[in-house]
Amino acid sequence: MTLDGFSSHISVVAALQIFYDHKIFVVKEEGDSSQTNQPYDQFIAKIYKRHIRELLDQVRFSLGKISQWDLIALCVVALKNTTRDRDSWKKSFIRVNLHPQHRVSI
User: Fold this and answer.
1) Between the CA of residue 12 and those of 26, 68, 93, what are the distances in Å?
2) What is the pTM of this model?
3) pLDDT by residue (tens digit) across 69-97?
4) Of 48, 72, 96, 99, which is least surrounded by CB within 10 A?
């Protein structure tokens, strides 16, 4: 499981013990790595969440109960649908000044 660098997400000893007991490896994102996630956060994460909501709405009524495996399958489908939108990736990199052909120097 990956957690962001927010300290309260990794400082609850009881929760970390449960992860340890169930052999769940917890990885913390370092604060210095946020710039690598900025393009994703600009557009792609929003598109991904929209796809998830749409799929959940479709499946919720047909299945009734949704298992963890159903959720994982929905996430995979949503991620595939999200990564097809190359223009959003490009716009995201441009917006955070990380696109090599559109960078604005300081």
Assistant:
1) 12, 24, 35
2) 0.54
3) 888 888 888 888 877 777 888 888 888 88
4) 72
**At 78, which amino acid appears?**
A
Of the pLDDT bands very low, low, confident and very high (cuts 50, 70, 90), residue 11 is confident
Handedness of CA 29, 33, 36, 39 (dihedral sign): positive
The C-alpha atoms of residue 66 and residue 37 are separated, in whole angstroms, by 30
Secondary structure string (H, E, C) spanning 34-66: HHHHHHHHHHHHHHHHHHHHHHHHHHHHHHCCC
In this structure, are residues 59 and 73 in contact, taking their beta carbons and an 8 Å threshold? no
DSSP 65-102: S--HHHHHHHHHHHHHHHHT-HHHHHHHHHHTT--TTT
Two tokens at 14?
A: 């009881």
Q: How far apart, in whole angstroms, are the C-alpha atoms of residue 39 and residue 44? A: 8
